[in-house]
Amino acid sequence: MSPQAWITTAEALAEGRLTLVSLWGETDRVHMAVLDEANALHHLSLACPFGRYPSVGKVHAPAIRLERAAADLFGLQPEGLPDTRPWLRHDSVYAFLPVTGEHLHVVPVGPVHAGIIEPGHFRFTCDGETVVRLEVRLGYAHKGVEHLMAGATLEHGARLAGRVSGDSSVAYALAFAQAAEAALGVEPPPRAVFLRALMAEMERLANHLGDVGAICNDAAFAIMLAHCSVLREAVLHEAATRFGHRLMMDRVIPGGVTVDLDAAGSAGITALVQEIRQRFRPLVALYDKTASIQDRTLGTGILAPALAARFGAGGFVGRASGRTFDARRARPYAPYDRLDFEVPVLTQGDVHARLWIRVLEVEQSLRLIEQSLARLPAGPISASLPTPLGGEGAALVEGFRGDVFVWLRVDATGRIGRCHLRDPSWFQWPLLEAAIEGNIIADFPLCNKSFNCAYSGVDL
Amino acid sequence: MRKTLFDSLIHRPFTEPLPAPEGEIHGLDQAARRRLGRSLAIRVVDAGSCNGCELELNALSNPLYDLERCGLKIVASPRHADVLLVTGPVTRHMEAALRATYEAMPAPKWVIACGDCAGCGGLYAQSPACLGGVSAVLPVNLTIPGCPPTPRALLAGLRRLMEA
């Protein structure tokens, strides 16, 4: 495409006619994926013979960090980018935004945190207890995933994809598999498609249950954490029993899945669904009837719907702020096109709304699991991959945190030429910085947990 | 709230039986270990994991595994810690923070490499962005394998360190 068409697309993004899905680089080329108003996915690619391209971040802020990352990884220079500091590269002293003002003080936190959390650096500028600015510095967990992808076999690539963010292992492996299948022109067998949905919903269930408990715990309502973590453990235990791994890593592969489910497995998961439905309801009622916890969650960390829409925020972050997008509904991939479920959306945009979206999604995941079990077709669980001819493929899959995007190119030898994986948190981290503004610093853990952004997922 | 608390009184405890100690200990100062008694304070550092290990480490504190019944405690400050438990393949970007945490701990101190990444670099052993496991940076006393190690495997490894 021409640089002019690239600039036109950037302007359409800035005007809100398109939504940015991702922007990534290669040695001599820059790529962009966007969604139009009908949720059709468009892939754009611009040759950069001189290592330069017109910046999208110049007019559309959500692209800034992606462009900084592409500059770090491939040396591509975005012309006109307002923020040219390195993002994934840490080899120089980082220039944090300057702080001026008589009453302000700075609270630096991390990358080593007080609890068991991933590494990241948070720099709060406060006026008394009120946060006037948060600047997040990431990249500490940068493992060179996309570098390792280049030249890897699809089998190895699937293992890497399943470890981009351990809590979203199924979602990433599924997005990778769908992209590989699109590149090679393979259809996974129907049984595999339903088993994938089953695992994806169990992953969502486990994470949402864990998050509901953990958010409450960050406001010292520990009883919710204790009970929710017992339910989460029940899901993981069932996953280990039926699929052989608690986080269901390496179960989804290009072509299908690696494990089948027998009648006893179906019965076990059905019993799990009933157990969770029965035991989660009184816990939700407990949250709903306790004024002291709601005093902390209601009206805290509000994310304005306009900002969520501009950044194309996925998952509970977007859906708690009026953005209806859910990849399972907006771009229905099998088997979700045949399953009955609702996409809950709220508009308050506070901690409570993000928690409540999870509560509502727990019920939807339970329904989806029941339907997947009831309609599980017979047949093989994987298709063999053809002798590769090379090709490109992309996929957008709804993980628990939001839509996971994978784009990949397979070369003629069947190895991965380039694979790009975009976590939903690329667009959620900047929104956390916006949502915390004007809140007291003591509410940061609560806000942060309600966003639950990925570190490893964006550090790659 | 009252109903939930009352239900807890008549419900059997969730806690599962403890697994047997497991794993091979390297270079442990037995005398020092004995002096600390049947208790250890653990500081966890994520040196670039995918967060799979963190999920399972967090699970150790749930009512089923209940880490603290063993005298094991996760602490916030390295100054309070006897054990440094490290996850991840040790990214270049976390090397300085990991060293600083270790140096901030009072002696005697021990290091656990938790998970395959921390053990040997895992899938990232060949990555130029990683150092290939904890032993490239710090002396490791115990490795708990797994991707990620299950909470039971973590308990078994930690109990091994307790009994050494």
**Strand arrangement in the largest pleated sheet of chain A:** 1-2-3
Helical residue percent band of chain B: 25-40%
Helix content of chain A: 40-55%
Give a quick account of the main beta sheet of chain A: strands, pairing sense, barrel closure: 3 strands, antiparallel
Anisotropy-based shape of chain A? globular
Derived from helix and strand composition plus strand pairing, the structural class of chain B reads alpha/beta
Count of strand segments of chain B: 5
Low-confidence stretches of chain A: none
What would your notes on this structure say?
Helices cover 43% and strands 16% of the residues of chain A. Chain A has 16 helices and 13 strands. A three-stranded antiparallel sheet of chain A has the order 1-2-3. In chain A, α6 packs antiparallel against α7, α7 runs antiparallel to α8 and α14 packs antiparallel against α15. The longest helix of chain A is centred in the middle third of the chain and has 28 residues. Chain A is globular. The mean pLDDT of chain A is 95. Chain B is of the alpha/beta class and 164 residues long. The longest helix of chain B has 13 residues. A five-stranded parallel sheet of chain B has the order 2-1-3-4-5. In chain B, β4, α5 and β5 form a beta-alpha-beta unit. Chain B contains six helices and five strands, in the order ααβαββαβαβα. The chains are: A alpha+beta (460), B alpha/beta (164). At the A-B interface, α7 and α8 of A face α1, β1, α3 and α4 of B.
